[in-house]
Amino acid sequence: MKPRFPCFKVLALGVVYGDQTVARGELIALLTAVRAMxxxxxxRHAIFVTDAKYVCNVVHLICTGLWRFLLHKLPNGxxxxxxxxxxxxxxxxxxxxxxxxxxxxxxxFEDLWVIAGNFCxxxxxxxxxxxxxxxxxxxxxxxxxxxxxxxxxxxxVFEYLAAFxxxxxxxLSKLPQKEGCPTTVLQTAxxxxxxxxxxxxxxxxxxxxxxxxxxxxxxxxxxLHFAEFDASVFNMCLQGANVAKAVxxxxxxxxxxxxIDVPDASDWGISWFELAVSxxxxxxxxxxxxxxxxxxxxxxxxxxxxxxLILPGHQRAAILQGICLRNA
Length: 328
Prior knowledge:
By secondary structure, the protein is mainly alpha-helical. It is 47% helix and 6% strand. It is built from eleven helices and six strands. It has helices spanning 22-40, 53-64, 67-70, 77-86, 109-130, 134-173, 206-214, 241-253, 272-283, 306-309, 318-327, and strands at 46-50, 92-96, 222-223, 255-256, 289-292, 299-301. A two-stranded parallel sheet has the order 1-2. A two-stranded antiparallel ribbon has the order 3-4. It is extended and about 80 Å long.
């Protein structure tokens, strides 16, 4: 017998409009809940619970304001735009939960409430799916089964190709090697390098490295020393005097170790891309995008302008921001 939860009420039920995707359905569910919250209790704080990582990523983009710059690249842009208009970061929070948990895995009453709510949401989604005509449901199931079969067959093809290539390399390696020809001897993985001591622990990877860099705030670093110069030199920057001033202010704010000229095997160094990110966070400036001309005849537009947004993605790529900073 299926459990019943009379205290849970279904706010809305139906087929997703637009493309029929799971991500779109999860996003519409949150948008519907937020709109209901704004309508019936517009001042209260609320926590929205979801098991969809995609929804969490979308809300993160909304809270940081990055969605405005990425909207033209994101699927479900209409829903993301509508959600951004009603989402209030000061009153709303999003809680990510694990899906399809059993009721006996709950550690307390609140955890059981979350599991039950997720169960009811899944049941409501299943009920909405059952409202579709039988022929469409059968077609949907057949497509899903076909995708699974194709994945299994494709995996077998890849396994065969990998085994065939391994056998081919082994056979070729037995032939006499000619000078200048690439070797066919199978390569073996190298041992990881020994950890180096120093300012940066070289053994850190992934999230551990991110945490280390986030908390890296040395107190003995010092800014570089600049010679005096006339402000008129800013006019030499083809991308604008204001950009040149921003670069100068940012450079004067950076701090470096006093022994920067001494080689350090453990020093990770820093890329132009990382410096460009630092420049943006400190100044709020992004380098303009070139849309025509050459040399002193070059024409630039603001990075966030409509004219720039319609350009191909490679003309607004983050790596170009690093190149612009290097040139500056």
